[in-house]
Amino acid sequence: MDNEEVIEPQDEDGEGDIEGDNEEEIEIVADSVENSEDESDNNNLVPNGYHDDEVASSDDETDDEDVPLQPRILLAGLGAVIGHNQRVDDSSSGDEEDNNIVEDDVEREKFDRELPGRHTYLGEGKEVAGRIILDDDLVQSLPLLSQPGLVLIPGQLLPLHLFHPSVISMMKKVIDTTKTFGVVNLRADTSSWRGVVGTTAEIFEYRDAGDPEDREVGLKIKARGRQRFKLMSTRRQLDGNLVGEVKMLVDKEMDEPLDIVRIKSLDRFMELAVNCYSPKYRPNFNSCVLSPLPPWVWDMYSPISLVAKVKQELSKLSSLSLQLPSLPAGPSELSWWVAANLPINDKLRAQLLAINSPVQRLRVELSFLSQCRVLVCRRCSKQLGDQQNIFSMSKEGPQGAFVNPGGHVHETLTLYKAKNLRLVGQPSTEYSWFPGYAWTITECLGCWNHIGWKFTAFNPNLRPEKFYGFSRRSIEAKVEVPDQPDSEDAEEGGTSHIVM
User: Is 43 within 8 Å of 2 (Cβ atoms)?
Assistant: First the structure.
């Protein structure tokens, strides 16, 4: 599901019909989805399971089952890139059906939100038992896996499809020993990687394509982010793998301000829950009233107050408001959930990962939530979606990491509605990240940059009937749509200021 070729429009009006018989020649300009000029790989034309239904239904002598999956996807993706079946997506314009989706779900089949987190498209794997927790402030050697454009968050699920023999060999050793490796986002143009903060990933399931009859290649892994670490030094082994000396980081949990001087005899008047961060717990007349600081200053550093404010901002997302009771209650867990499930850019994500205080992370995320109103194309700033249309198609949250057949990891944000998109190719269910849904590649209608995918249910009784998945690195959250994205002044003025 990865279309990384961009077709530049011939005129300023890119919304015309592209399927006409009198098409002019179109120049194909290679560019990555991540808009990074220094990043190139062999998977630029490999969409996630792209397959042309017309080719599949033809009576050619060669059957699709006789062709391996990845070459078949690559050939079909080439047909999509050169202009096959490109059309403007207008299914969300004036559509009121999604607004009434809660009422419709009473009589229709609901999608099982457990399925996306299982990553069944990777096949059935072998479970890895056990759990290893590294000591705080421990310095040790750790095998590293650099994933450009991916900042792994503690608690986030990470699927991988590896092909390089040396990397596969390293991962097999990890599976047999500690089951833990480090994930870092290293830039090739950086003189020193010392001080870079990464996250340990613990493997809990893997699938080795050792049987030639399965027509599979590589090693498929499911891992979950666990602990943060700081990179002290790195060395390159003879096989090309990277090993780093890392120091484990620990969160500095903070109690309520002036909690040490609170009047404990008044605790009996409070509604204490098992979890002290329950909404029932309110410091109405305890240490808060003893503070010489005004209430607004207290609220800036009170973990309970910050948790309540973050959940209040999340409740503005209409589809997420129903899931607020299932959100993490503690400040540390909630801060990581927000960091993993919102379209935060890589720079801010790296800053959040380096912060050792849950209170400070929540303050940064609260500032981001207050400024996240519209979603625009990262390249041309054309509006693609609204904040209130974000919803959770997976139990993990509205944004999750998925891997395509070429091994490229996409963090995908799901929305009910989207606009200013065009569709490329025919819907396909092959290698679908959401079982029961067929996907179609989507591009920005303004600059033809790859945005993500449109998912449509092939079962008419399944709800939702359709939704959109945006690749996080192709979009950007803004307070409002910039008026003049091409001018430097407008770009500086449109940049949101995040309070640290």
Answer: yes
Q: Which residue has the tokens 């007349």?
A: 285
Rounded Cα distance, 269 and 282, in Å: 11
pLDDT at 332 over 70: yes
Among 244, 222, 239, which residue's Cα sits nearest to residue 170? 239
Contact 298, 376 (CB under 8 A): no
- pLDDT computed for residue 263 by the predictor: 67
Could you give the CA distance from residue 424 to residue 3 in angstroms, rounded to a whole number?
A: 9
- The one-letter amino acid code at 433 reads W
Q: Phi and psi (nearest 5°) for 374?
A: -130, 155
pTM for this model (two decimals): 0.75
Please give the Cα distance from 199 to 353 (Å, whole number): 9
d(Cα 485, Cα 339) in Å, to the nearest integer? 26
CA separation for the pair 178, 348 (Å, rounded) = 30
Instruction: Decide if 327 contacts 307 (C-beta within 8 A).
Output: no
Beta bridge partners of 5: 30
Q: Where residue 286 falls among pLDDT bands split at 50, 70, 90?
A: low
